[in-house]
Amino acid sequence: MKHLLKLGIVLGGLVACNRAHTGAAFGPSPIPSPRPTPIATIFSEDFESDSLAAWQDGVDPERHRIVADPSRAKSGSRYLSVTYPAGRDGGWMTRFFMPGYDAALVSLYVRFPRGWVGGTKIVGFYGSRIDDQWSGFGKSGVCPKGTDFFDAMLITQDTGNPGPLKFYTYYPGMVRDPDGVCWGRFGDPSFRFASYGAAPSLNHDQWHQIEFEVRLNTPGESNGSQRFWVDGVLGATWTGISFRDSDILRVNAAQLSFSSGGVGVPRTQSLDIDQVVVSLIE
User: Fold this and answer.
1) Whole-angstrom Cα distance, residue 100 to residue 170?
2) pTM, 2 dp
3) I want to staple 272 with a disulfide (CB 3.0 to 4.6 A). Which of 15, 62, 111, 257 is the partner?
4) 163: exposed, middle or buried (C-beta count within 10 Å: 0-12, 13-18, 19+)?
5) What range does the domain containing 80 cover?
């Protein structure tokens, strides 16, 4: 998609504009933070059922299949294999949990087989209106208004094959491009091409645990945040963010997203997913 091709485009005034909107600076925190403790499981998928029926939107048998191989699974005997056909991407798989929550954590394991090249989205939370579960979808290039949607995702860029994780977030105070459209932002632009912290890059042929936390702001305040960890190591913290202007928006869908941008991948390749858990956190 076009928006992933624009991942490196950030206007020079991004920091000042967003600080003015949120009332606080944002970007990677220099102080490691403990991972949140889940208080309830919202959704879990280990693929051991040999069915993708729990995913409510996007399942594509051509690109999404469960592999039975105990020697290759992270645990148990099965895992999800996602195929990116040449010239396309890996699609998506979505689970809704309406009306939603103010804070949630998703954990999953991902493996990029040897030979993987390019960047991709991996996982994200969608924030839709509690009266319309679809209001947060199909919004590429759309600037959020504070009462219609927000999206918070994790991506890899095409510089590391697969390289480090980055935030990719749509929120009301984000800077508009000169043509008036919006593309997801990484956070503070001074970190847009650098490591956010000590978390390891994602490597070929290795299971990596990714944990992604989103905490929504109190409407009218800029106290929202998001963090992610790779293999238990804090990768980045983005604080002082306003995801919404009204509590009609909540975190109410999780998506395994495999968009690679542009015209898709240059040749057919795949990645693997296992042990997906979405949790409620305080």
Assistant:
1) 18
2) 0.85
3) 111
4) middle
5) 2-30+38-281
